[in-house]
Hints:
The complex is a heterodimer.
Chain A: H1 9-32, H2 34-37, H3 48-60, H4 63-73, H5 83-104, H6 113-116, H7 123-149, H8 153-183, H9 201-227, H10 234-261, H11 273-293, H12 296-300, H13 302-329, H14 339-362, H15 378-392
Helix pairs in contact in A: 1-14, 3-5, 3-13, 3-14, 4-5, 4-8, 4-9, 5-7, 5-14, 7-8, 8-9, 9-10, 9-13, 10-11, 11-13
Chain B: E1 3-8, H1 17-25, H2 32-36, E2 47-51, E3 54-58, H3 67-71, E4 77-79, E5 85-87, H4 97-101, E6 108-109, E7 118-119, H5 125-129, H6 135-139, E8 145-149, H7 150-163, E9 183-186, H8 206-213, H9 216-254
Parallel strand pairs in B: 1-9
Antiparallel strand pairs in B: 1-8, 2-3, 4-5, 6-7
Amino acid sequence: MTVPRIRFTFWKAIFLFIMAAGVYCTFLRFFRGLGASTNLSDQFPWGLWIGFDVMCGVMLAAGGFTLTAAVEIFNIKRFHSIVRPTILTAFLGYLLVCAALMYDLGLPWNIWHPLVMRNPHSVMFEVAWCVMLYTTVLALEFSPIVLEHFQLKRALKVIRSVMVVFVILGVLLSTLHQSSLGTLYLIMPNKLHPFWWSPLLPVFFFVSAIAVGLAMTIFESSMSSKYFGRELELPILRDLGRVLVVVLALYGILRFEDLYHRGVLNLVLVSSYQQHFFLLEIFLSVVAPLGLLLIPKVRESAQGLYLAAVLTLLGFVTNRLNVTITGVENAGARYTPKWTEVVITAMFVALGFAIFGLVARYLPIFPEEKVHIPALSEPEARFAEVVVPVHAGD
Amino acid sequence: MSKGILYDATQCIGCKQCEQACATENGLPYDDLIADQQITSAHKYTAILIKDDKFMRKLCMNCDDPACASVCPVGAMKKTALGPVTYDKGRCMGCRYCMAACPFGVPKYEWEKAVPGVRKCIMCSKRVAQGKQTACAEICPTGATKFGDREQLLEEAKKRIHDNPGKYLPHIFGETEVGGTSVMLLSSVPFNLFGFRTDLTERALPMYTYQVLSRIPDFVPLFGTMLGGIYWITHRREDVAEAEAQEKKQKGGER
């Protein structure tokens, strides 16, 4: 057994620097207000915190529902060993989205209002409920990992017997709010640039969430193998890569069919501020990863899959930022985030990585036979041996 | 009967008394400096816009089917039966979706405040409920801003255009824009000269999201059943395979 390689002091220094800056910016945000801490304006009420922290945060957490659906509902057993890390990523992602939302809301202490003040005609109302319920479902999906660690066998048995209900609920809720983040923008047909405003926005957001869920799983498995000394499950990642090819191809075709039917395909060839960002997005999200993954040699290699996954992630992050920022700049106002906004966003990303690292170290996230858990004492190790085969069958 | 405001730019003399009356009515500051600001803001709900010798008035259009009220997750924005679109800060959580969704860029935010709210013209909802005119209409010395029943004002606007050939653009801004608005504008020069968008859809904006949202109640049981069904089928196959394996094993043992 080897000691996990977590001694990357350089990254620790960066992390501490971002945290210190983050604390200062948090002070600015809550004591000086949104005006002092952001470049938001009456013409541009939503910026980086909505565009990245919320939109991309939810999107990047899509691996949770994609993989649980594949394994638990479609019963694709060979993906089983990577479900737990994706649930952890998703759970962390949603917690961070909720935390980031507290920064962006003008009156964050009123965040509970949608519980009792209802407007079912509001997409935001639906998203609020779905995110709240799904975060709860993720906590329940994550709970066996904690229960295993503390050997609470009775609770484990109870939660496993009802898990399928939560899994179905989780996939349903995810389908609803991943697409609804696109629906949010349907009400701005005259504001959002025609590259991005489409009646199919909810479909695009949903399909891209699946693509990102797959890419994120590849990314996170690669990172885990690099930083936790885990064996890379290359055959699984290859399968995910193939699925990614199909999803990206469908997405790309749908995007261009939609542009054609709305009569704006010609805009693709006309140089403009929006066109540059559109081309960048399409290149990163569809053209480059598809091109790479269609080469058998690349698709089979760990590095090739990793590169394609990273490109896909960057591509769809660009897409979400285009919808929330570039596309809305069409209405006249320009927006560049203030340094404080960037710091807060960086803080949440850094927190995501750090907490994932900590949890992966102390809780049974990875299959037992393949990982070394430093904190595990003898009886726990024996318990883990008993538990894992049981878990492998559920 | 829904109320409305008709602003006729050709009758406006740019005295800005409407701005002053609005500030007084809403407890907002008003001085020469603010009078010079040709934009609406968190402290200025209405503004007279001046281009050469032409005037235009900017205020909340108080849409018939307002995007802001439709998108508000907590119902802080409401369209009242009398016409005004009101705002309740006690409900607001500050998501600013109303600002993002408004096709006219009307709602403004108190960015500098630690406890901020949305600010906009609410068509003097209290006065209107008491049967009074809006403050701006009451003070207007020329009748350029006129308050009344929306339908009657619309008829009057059409009549003015018809009776004065060449005086007006043949367009009542607010008659059909985003499904119609309580505030309507008449002008002799194009509205886009004053930053108004003239390419707005005639469809009520909330319909764009409602046509998706309204399907969700039907979608949930269907999709849920589908997922449960797939689970049932895929796991059944496995049970069968397991039973067959057991059977084989048993037969093998007998032999």
